[in-house]
Amino acid sequence: xxxEKAEGDAPVRAYIAKLPVWQQSIAKRFDDLVAREVPQVxxxxxxxxxxxxxxxxxxxAAFGTFKNKVKINxxxxxxxxxxxxxxxxxxxxxxxxxxxxxxxxxxxxxWVRQAASLPGWGS
Length: 123
Fold this sequence. Notes:
The chain has helices at residues 9-17, 21-37, 105-117, and strands spanning 6-7, 42-46, 49-54, 58-66, 69-74, 86-88, 92-97. It has 123 residues and is of the alpha+beta class. The protein has a single domain (6-117), classed as Alpha-Beta Complex (Aspartate Aminotransferase, domain 1). A 7-stranded antiparallel sheet has the order 1-2-3-4-5-7-6, covered by helices on one side. The termini are far apart.
């Protein structure tokens, strides 16, 4: 989905609201989980995707939507233990979720906490 660059909670929530129902469910669960685990989270839309960061430490995660999946990216994911299953480049690791996949809240919350504590992308 195409989205204009914007800072703040409202643009990310508007992005999520426009997704197909099954993607919206995954995206909302991830967004709510990030807000719970990282109360000082900073949100933005960059490159047509929601980004999550901590002021002064950079962006730690983002997600993108594709026809058959939602891809949750952790920018320093190779440093997470255990690392998310999919890899891109030297540092980034991802989790791909389809409509039928379980949302492992405990594991994803652990990755979010770890990722938010590391220096992020753009820091």
